[in-house]
Amino acid sequence: MPKVLVSDPIDQAGIDLLGQVAQVDERPKLSPEELLRIIPEYDALMIRSGTQVTQEVIEAGTNLKIIGRAGVGVDNVDVPTATRKGIVVVNSPEGNTIAAAEHAIALMMSLSRHVPQANQSLKAGHWDRKKFTGVEVYKKNLGIVGLGKIGSHVANVAQAMGMKILAYDPFLSQERADQLGCRLVDLDLLFSESDYITLHLPKTPETTNLINAETLARMKPTARIINCARGGIVDESALAEALKAGKIAGAALDVFANEPLKESDLFEVEENLILTPHLGASTEEAQVNVAIDVAEQIRDVLLGLPARSAVNIPGLKPEVLEKLKPYLMLAETLGNLVGQLAGGRIESLDVRLQGELAKTDSKPIVIAALKGLLTPALRERVNFVNAAIEAKERGIRIIETKDSDVRDYAGSIRLVAKGASESRSVNGALLADKEMRITSIDDFPISVIPTQHMLLTLHRDMPGIIGQIGSTLGKFNVNIASMQVGRKLVRGDAVMVLSIDDPLPEGVIDEITQAPGIRDAYMVSL
Ligand SMILES: NC(=O)c1ccc[n+]([C@@H]2O[C@H](COP(=O)([O-])OP(=O)(O)OC[C@H]3O[C@@H](n4cnc5c(N)ncnc54)[C@H](O)[C@@H]3O)[C@@H](O)[C@H]2O)c1
Ligand SMILES: O=C(O)[C@H](O)COP(=O)(O)O
């Protein structure tokens, strides 16, 4: 049974689901040293934001196949290292959207009505009503930075409370903003016009310290800031200064540059600052959602199936994946075949998708073809996760073309691998029953069902040649399962593909290639 390490608190629903297919060890309080020590035993690691999955951890995890983040942000995972190592990283992109959006709204309302401060004051024996006079959000401007899943839900709820939404999101279309009833503005305008500013964007080198002394200075003195996105987007020292100096009216933070937050300039701000310990996703509902979402993906990957929300391979909706799966297998088989024919260094791979395939996302098919192409050289070290990187590191140029004309098959794939001196090509298609066919090799038309062991010859189309190859195979006790010959011209060049029951014994290829009329012979293993 595969072994899964769960190193952060995860809802029981996810643990139970994984328990059906794996041994699950829940170790939520591991030190970094303990994690490093035990990770080699595990096939999968399931985490939230608490575990730091560093390069060292990934490199020590020699059996790891998948890292599952029960939540959205994967900034605690060294994704590039995981990708290089061929480890799938999955998350739950939508499981905690509502929870995080509602927490942002809760913080906005708490800031407006001083709920935590009033609660604390009352419990300390005071009945101070004047001090906690609040402000209404009704008719106020809410500036949303990042109008993605969480930002959009915040926009809907805030609009229902009568707020006007200004939004900044450089990757959002005007059409989507119009649909959401939000006014798309630039950041300068958002900062200067907003009464509330809520952050719902990822932390990247560009967004680090987006809220800093200079941007804080551009805000209204009545502005209130909410950060439920990621620590580090707000410069915490600059915010503490601005709050103490009364440059803005308040702030509420759920996330911090260093978590857990232990020492901070923020602790010196007495009045108008609310802090919560990264609670955005902490609702019962969200925790069940993300646990099940990620446990299902870990289960699938451990069973050899693709994941639906991988962050380091193209994600596909289950219904699209279902349709594409036979083509992915075809692309991988053709890639493997053309890789063995081209041999040695490959400079470029031309991937042409024809017929109905021209309408689909080509990326997964290209990756499958690359996986097949690199398999003869890299064996199990190449997979769907690292195939593109491995190809790039080898300098293989990818050329993609699409041709929607339907010819003999509803959808077909053509691969051309260019080596240092020559190009080799293969075409393949699926029949109505989804059975694979190799439909040409080096443009010689054939119709071959790919099998595990095949002998392929390039030869002159002349009497006696097929018999000669048959006798050589007989001499070496090789059993032929099927045979196909393809030619362009009578008595010109031809190709022959023999399916054989076992790999060829040593010496057969040499003997076949020495026979008159044979140009080349290859043992192909798929
Ligand atoms: N506090 C929590 O517990 C909690 C819970 C869930 C998610 N999050 C965080 O909330 C954030 C948003 O999550 P989401 O699920 O809505 O993600 P999302 O990908 O759906 O949306 C993010 C949006 O930010 C936009 N964006 C990217 N760069 C930007 C930039 N430079 N300026 C403005 N906008 C930019 C993107 O175009 C996108 O629309 C993420 O940082 C996520 O990690 C926090
Ligand atoms: O990215 C996320 O999903 C949130 O930050 C939640 O993190 P958590 O799972 O550690 O609560």
UniProtKB/TrEMBL annotation:
A Pfam family per the record: 2-Hacid_dh_C
Enzyme Commission designation: 1.1.1.95
Example of a GO biological process term: L-serine biosynthetic process
Domain annotation ACT: ranges: 454-526
Matching PROSITE patterns: ACT, D_2_HYDROXYACID_DH_1, D_2_HYDROXYACID_DH_3
Pathway: Amino-acid biosynthesis; L-serine biosynthesis; L-serine from 3-phospho-D-glycerate: step 1/3
Keyword Transcription regulation: no
Keyword vocabulary terms for this entry: Amino-acid biosynthesis, NAD, Oxidoreductase, Serine biosynthesis
Catalytic reaction(s) noted: (2R)-3-phosphoglycerate + NAD(+) = 3-phosphooxypyruvate + NADH + H(+); (R)-2-hydroxyglutarate + NAD(+) = 2-oxoglutarate + NADH + H(+)
GO terms assigned for molecular function: NAD binding; phosphoglycerate dehydrogenase activity
UniProt-listed InterPro entries: ACT-like_dom_sf, ACT_dom, ASB_dom_sf, D-2-hydroxyacid_DH, D-isomer_2_OHA_DH_cat_dom, D-isomer_DH_CS, D-isomer_DH_CS1, D-isomer_DH_NAD-bd
General function of this protein: Catalyzes the reversible oxidation of 3-phospho-D-glycerate to 3-phosphonooxypyruvate, the first step of the phosphorylated L-serine biosynthesis pathway. Also catalyzes the reversible oxidation of 2-hydroxyglutarate to 2-oxoglutarate.
Family, as annotated: Belongs to the D-isomer specific 2-hydroxyacid dehydrogenase family.
The protein, known as: D-3-phosphoglycerate dehydrogenase
Species, as recorded: Lyngbya confervoides BDU141951
Organism classification: Bacteria, Bacillati, Cyanobacteriota, Cyanophyceae, Oscillatoriophycideae
